[in-house]
Amino acid sequence: MNRFIILIVLIFGLISCSTVTFQPFTNQKYAPTEKVDLYIDEKPSREYIEFGRIIVGEDAFTGEKNMVKWALEKARKVGADGLIWVKEEKKFYAIPASGSVLAGDIKQIIFIAIKYKN
Known about the structure:
It contains 2 helices and 5 strands, in the order H-E-E-E-H-E-E.
């Protein structure tokens, strides 16, 4: 019984951890920026280069608003001038636990980090 309780606590700990990942497309590094433009249903009118992907994974207790906030924070750190919202997807997970299975969906939002051309 104690093992089951510990396992449940560990599982909920794992699914309650949001992740923000930056996957660079090049080796180019940029200085952090103060302001990042967010493009949801449109592309920037200015010329730009795409230099990486930011993936934000939802935890069990956050919503889309926080996911966007965390993406913008990561974008500032990696020097992005803008973020283009590419897609939202759900990932299914299943974790065996003491004779049963805990399962559910975790939402991810994928963004492209951009730098404006001068």
